[in-house]
Amino acid sequence: MRKKVIPLALILIFLLILAWPGKAQRGRFWGLWADQSLNLTEDQLAKIQDLRLEFQKAILPLRMEVQKHYLELRRMIRSNVSQAEIQAKMNQIDKLESELKEKFITHQKQIRDLLTPEQKV
């Protein structure tokens, strides 16, 4: 019994660390310095704000889905579920998080495409 509890507890701790909400705050930093250090035009700022809003709308359902799967995973870990089922749930979470990362990279690229060559340096 003890041999099963310790690995499951470690997995739960690892997942809780990954699910920590602080990761979502990274985007706020962009707005604090970008318009000053890059000398963005009003048009660029407006387009970036529009892109940011579109991005947030696009990822919100995905983020909620990830949270739902984390909650299900926690329930599975507490109950008598096989390791294979837990691994399958973790694979689902990994896939969704990969989608989030792809969307974030695409979003960064869209913003970078708005910058002039001087601003990209």
Tell me the β content: under 5%
User: What does the overall shape look like?
Assistant: elongated
Average predicted local confidence, pLDDT: 85
DSSP summary, beta strand count: 0
Q: In angstroms, what separates the terminal alpha carbons?
A: 57 Å
So how many helices?
A: 5
- Enumerate the spans where pLDDT stays under 50 for 5 or more consecutive residues: none
SS-based class: mainly alpha
For the largest beta-sheet, the strand count, sense and barrel status come to: none
N-to-C SSE string, H for helix and E for strand: HHHHH
Number of domains: 1
The Cα radius of gyration reads 19 Å
The proportion of residues forming helix, as a percent range, comes to over 70%
Structure notes:
The chain is mainly alpha-helical and 121 residues long. The protein contains five helices and no strands. The termini are far apart.
